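Lab channel / #folding
Pinned by the channel admin:
"Please post every new chain as: sequence first, then the structure tokens as a reply. Keep commentary short and put observations after the output so the thread stays searchable."

First post following the new format, from NK:
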Amino acid sequence: MTTLKNLQDLYVEQLKDLYSAETQLLQALPQMAAAASNPELKAGFLKHAEQTQQQIKRLDTVFADLGEQPGGHTCKAMQGLIAEGNEMIETEAAPAVKDAGLIACAQRVEHYEISGYGTVARYAQVLGKRQHLETLRVTENEEKQTDSILNTLADTINEEAMRA
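Reply from TO:
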């Protein structure tokens, strides 16, 4: 069990949670792309995998600045979200219906990440870690942009799924 003595300890613990979440997601995104039938959705998952690699590198710089190692923690929430994504991948469904389901799973992931990055950014601000704050806000904004892209794709794909 982890002992958290102060906000700095909580900050590091939450960063480790995000690092675990991102590394798990990086493995899952190619599988989601392979399961998607809509070319834009497929490309979006692959693009987000590339973006996730950059987000992990940003977290690496934050950990290096803190003199901490990113490992040693498993994000159980992301494990669950990925398990739901895997269930959708394995579900038999019309292509547009499966794509709509994949978007639902992806948006749950994005909302989890938006929440996580927003939280650690606020901790960084309170702790006076201005460079971390800027770095974390970049990633938070990327996650919000990804969610927006998924919303746009859902508009079209949900219509197709309705006609399936």
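NK: Residues 130-163 form the longest helix (34 residues).
TO: also worth noting, Helices lie at 7-35, 39-66, 76-90, 95-126, 130-163.
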